[in-house]
Amino acid sequence: MNYTIPSTVFIQEVDDEVIILDTNTQEYFSINEVGKDIWEHISKNTPKDKLIEELSTKYEVPKEQLEVDIQNFCEALEQKGLIKKD
Questions:
Q1: CA 51 – CA 10 distance, rounded (Å)
Q2: In whole angstroms, what separates CA 32 from the centre of its chain?
Q3: Global pTM?
Q4: How far is CA 71 from its chain centroid?
Q5: 77: which of 20, 30, 45, 57 lies 20 to 30 Å off by Cα?
Q6: The dihedral of CA 49, 52, 53, 54: what is its sign?
Q7: CA of 27: how far to CAs of 23, 34, 65, in Å?
């Protein structure tokens, strides 16, 4: 993935929930398990094809649908300033 996570953004697991905190805006965001998996791959700079392959297998979702979902998720994160395109 060609995104970076700003140094002002943190992720924390609380009970069964995953929280993203933007320390600039003091906003909290909650993401589900799939979102957490995508976030982890973003933080590791996993190539998009590898991410789609892994998540497609893990969640038994068609690759085409997963690619659209990942793109939408990343666009939402980017709009909130939680990730930046390289």
A1: 21
A2: 10
A3: 0.88
A4: 10
A5: 57
A6: positive
A7: 7, 21, 29
Q: What is the 3-state secondary structure (H, E, C) of the chain?
A: CCEECCCCEEEEEECCEEEEEECCCCEEEEECHHHHHHHHHHHCCCCHHHHHHHHHHHHCCCHHHHHHHHHHHHHHHHHCCCCEEC
Write out pLDDT tens, residues 18-41: 999 999 999 999 999 999 999 999
Question: Residue 8 forms beta bridges with which residues?
Answer: none
* Pair of tokens at residue 74: 């990343």
